[in-house]
Amino acid sequence: MTSLELRLKRSSSMPGNSSTGFSSWVVQFSRTIQDQGREMGRFYWLREDRAAATRAGGYVNAAHRWGLPGLLRCPTCSATWASTGHYYPGVDLSRLDEEREFRKARPEPLPEFSRLRELVRPLAPSGAQLPPGTRFGPLQGTGRGQFPDVSWLGDIVLVQRRVLDGLQAAGLSGVQGFSSALKFRAEQGPDLRELQMPHHGQLHPDCVPPDSPPPCQTCGRWALGRPEEPVLDGTSLPSDLDLFRVGNFATMVICTERFLDEIHRMECDGLAWRELPVRTGKAGALTALGGQNAPTR
Questions:
Q1: Which of 154, 147, 124 shows the shortest CA–CA distance to 62?
Q2: What is the C-alpha separation between 98 and 117, in angstroms, rounded?
């Protein structure tokens, strides 16, 4: 697969962190969350705290072991594309006789893409969308240096083992972590686990420009950049998950107050977040295969 490289050591305009590993505004915000109880009614968009990444200075060059090909010239919209935001590190394709066909990134015509997707479907989580470019298996590659409690490889989320254990011990739903196959220069490298998150919910039509074309009826591609002010559709959001990706914009990672409570209790660094507005309304017209579309080369 094509390597996706991340340099965690970089300058940033993100707010600096306090000694607890958070910027001061995040710490204050977390304390208000504790006072608000355990209700599941508020949702937060998680992003990288780049200041924490810069201080740690770690470096990873890695890609998932397997993946679906991109789509070559959709017969309806003519686009050649692949998505990001669909990662299943817990799915093992080694049992497939055709396993080697999933190792190399390339675009394929719709019939061949559909054939390969159906081979994978029985091994994937129930209901997984599996758009072009979906990745499977552990991250493999190299790394060096130190890492925050939560690290980001693009929109892939890696956590230290103690963080994963703490989140799962707290009974949070939707938190699954899988070992990577990263090799570090040091004898004892960090034990980084990749989070595998389900896809649920949708962006509300109110945050989508009215002149945006609808998703392709054949391939599901939605040619939309992330809205500057995202709004979640309340009728589509799960009531039983503390961590998930937006179903029709899979690069966006969403969590609940319960998740942030636990992150604050463990004094983790590497995360920044903001609350997103939630509105009720029908979003069926915006349903797509999900992910952030990217051209396939």
A1: 154
A2: 12
For the residues of 84-116, what is the DSSP string, one character each? Answer: ES-EETT---TTSTTGGGGSS--EE-HHHHHHH
- Six token digits for residue 161: 């083992």
Helices (H), 138-256: 161-169
Q: Whole-angstrom Cα distance, residue 121 to residue 128? A: 8
Residue 157, beta-bridge partner list? 152
Rounded to an integer, what is the distance from CA 274 to the centroid of its chain? 16
pLDDT digits (tens, 9 = 90+) for 102-158: 999 999 999 999 999 999 999 999 999 999 999 999 999 999 999 999 999 999 999
What are the phi and psi torsion angles at 188 (to 5°)? Answer: -115, 85
DSSP per residue over 230-271, as a string? --EEGGG--SS-SEEEETTEEEEEEEEHHHHHHHHHTT--SE
Burial classification of residue 238, based on how many CB atoms lie within 10 Å of its CB (0-12 exposed, 13-18 middle, 19 or more buried): middle
Tell me the C-alpha distance between 167 and 184, whole Å. 25
Cα–Cα distance, 249 to 225 (Å, whole number):
9
Q: By the 8 A CB rule, do 136 and 117 touch? A: no
CA proximity to 71, closest of 121, 96, 105: 105
Structure letter (DSSP) for residue 76: T
What SS3 state is found at 17? coil
Q: What is the model's pTM?
A: 0.83
